[in-house]
Amino acid sequence: xxxxTFVAGNWKMHKTTAESVALARELRQLLAQVRDRVQIAVxxxxxxxxxxxxxxxxxxxxxxxxxxxxxxxxxxTGEVSAxxxxxxxxxxxxxxxxxxxxxxxxxxxxxxxxxxxxLKAGLLPIVCVGxxxxxxxxxxTLEVVSRQVKGALAGIGADVGKTFTLxxxxxxxxxxxxxxxxxxxxxVHAHVRSLLKELWGAAADEVRIQYGGSVKPDNAAELLSQPxxxxxxxxxxxxxxxxxxxxxxxxx
Length: 252
Ligand code: PGA
Description:
Strand order of the largest sheet: 1-2-3-4-5-6-7-8
CATH class of the domain at 64-232: Alpha Beta
Order of helices and strands: EHEHEHEHHEHHHEHEHEH
Radius of gyration: 17 Å
Largest sheet: 8 strands, parallel, barrel
Shape: globular
CATH topology of the domain at 64-232: TIM Barrel
Structural class: alpha/beta
Bound molecules: 2-phosphoglycolic acid
Number of strands: 8
Distance between the termini: 18 Å
């Protein structure tokens, strides 16, 4: 079974609720005809999760949270738990995004705790990994990505594992306009796939691995044509309906 392409838009800290709903409605219209061919999700900020989920009800667009806390509830000012994200209408949750690691102190260990909490709440994780420029230049890309993958997936078996999405996002390519070449990306994706095989055996062939980092309408087709690139996690270009729609349709 070929893996179904999965494209997700990470809106980050952009869009008020009214703007989010307007963008969701526009996307719903633009993307109605790709039903069944490509899986699509958008990840609005928490304040827009529920209204966007409502605006997309019955459509072929799904909703994702941008993170979730690992406890179900408690004294964690500013945090949102996995059951809350699920109840707001999300089916997926992005975990371990490099901005969370860089600016909010997330580690492989806390990402792993969030992965377990998400699964328990019925959310499908999109786990992000990727090296910094310094790590790439120091020839440490595969080592860093291996550590992140193994760390995030600790304690997860093949049965559940096959429902996962991973996103390889080289930190130096995020929001910079620099994209990894399709060769550079494919090399890391193949490496991640081989790690997943070690962990989960044949189930690794069912796991989608998205590429992220300055994916745009004009580079999406080339990236998505690589054998181990099964989709895209799109930041900046997901904020414009026409650009995101073009990326979703890029594979043809
Ligand atoms: P970008 O962000 O497309 O703006 O580089 C990607 C991401 O952070 O997921």
